[in-house]
Specification:
Order of helices and strands: EEEEHHEEEEEHHEEHHHEE
Number of strands: 13
Shape: globular
Strand order of the largest sheet: 1-2-12-11-8-9-13
Helix content: 25-40%
Strand content: 25-35%
Largest sheet: 7 strands, antiparallel
Distance between the termini: 22 Å
């Protein structure tokens, strides 16, 4: 398995500083011949893309998308406008590539960036497809992104239970992707930055093999991002490794200057489902994965 290393960066923000620590890994898994995932872990942008379509089409789609987003990260000034422009250019790249001939060629894209352009730093998550962003805060895990999939739409409409969704025949069908005929406007969620925030950005190769409880378990067991990434990858492979697996773990340590007015009001929390702390590792791994479907 690939060697994983933790990277750190001290970021000056309005009123203080944020120390970011992160680690990333992508692996072909046990059953696939080609790794069609691609990832970007470069301050201030952290991205996972899961490609699909033809023998090499998915690999082309995810690689071109990450290349275009890397150019955005290189400028150290990420914005939603810059992301959408990069994704539009990626769509052109995919359409013009001779290896991307399959009509289903495309890629998911999901991730988070640190926005320090305002009066206070914020996280901005983005998503197209069914790769996911999770946030652990106060030892609870929240799925921030919502899957763009047929099964998730049925669950949201109340026509399918989460339990029924696990084995639904359309479980691998996504409704949005970065591709020649698709919209490239992601869903965004803006969150306050809180000391101790830990993000997991992953392809469905992880969530097919590891439950949300399992993800939380390994985050709690391994404060170091590289150790957490390595443990999750090993668990996903041991549980079957049915798909390519890509994981980024991003941790924030925040030091803010004291407010002049002494305001100690609690910061608002994201209104998302919470996975409570598990007392042991009994629910940490399993073949069932999570409640929402996954793309090819």
């Amino acid at each position: 398995m690939p060697e994983v290393t933790t990277h750190t960066r001290l970021v000056a923000v309005p009123g203080g500083e944020v120390t970011l620590s992160w680690a990333a890994v992508t692996d072909v898994g046990r059953r696939r011949e080609v790794n069609q995932d691609a990832l970007l872990a470069q301050y201030p942008l952290f991205i996972v893309a899961d490609g699909m379509g033809g023998h090499i089409g998915g690999e082309i789609a995810s690689a071109r998308t990450v290349e275009r987003l890397t150019a955005v990260a290189d400028k150290d000034a990420v914005s939603t406008k810059a992301i959408e422009k990069a994704l539009s250019r990626a769509v052109e790249d995919i359409a013009q590539h001779p290896g991307a001939t399959d009509d289903g060629t495309g890629t998911t894209v999901t991730g988070v960036f640190l926005d320090i352009s305002g009066d206070e730093p914020t996280w901005v998550t983005l998503n197209i497809g069914d790769s996911r962003v999770y946030l652990m805060r106060d030892e609870s895990l929240m799925q921030i992104t919502v899957d763009h999939s047929v099964v998730q739409e049925l669950v949201s409409a109340g026509r399918l239970s989460p339990e029924e969704a696990e084995n639904h025949p359309y479980g691998n069908v996504i409704t949005r992707a970065v591709g020649p005929t698709e919209s490239v406007t992601p869903d965004y969620v803006r969150l306050d930055v809180v000391d101790g925030d830990r993000f997991v950005i992953c392809s469905d190769g992880l969530t097919k093999e590891l439950t949300d409880y399992g993800i939380l378990h390994f985050l709690l067991e391994h404060p170091d991002p590289a150790e957490a990434v390595d443990a999750m990858l090993h668990a996903a492979i041991e549980n079957g490794g049915r798909d390519n697996v890509s994981i980024i773990v991003l941790t924030a340590a925040v030091r803010m200057d004291a407010d002049d007015d002494g305001d100690t009001a609690e910061r608002p929390q994201p209104a998302t489902a919470v996975i409570p702390t598990v007392a042991d590792g009994s629910a940490a791994t399993g073949d069932t994965g999570s409640s929402s479907p996954a793309a090819d």
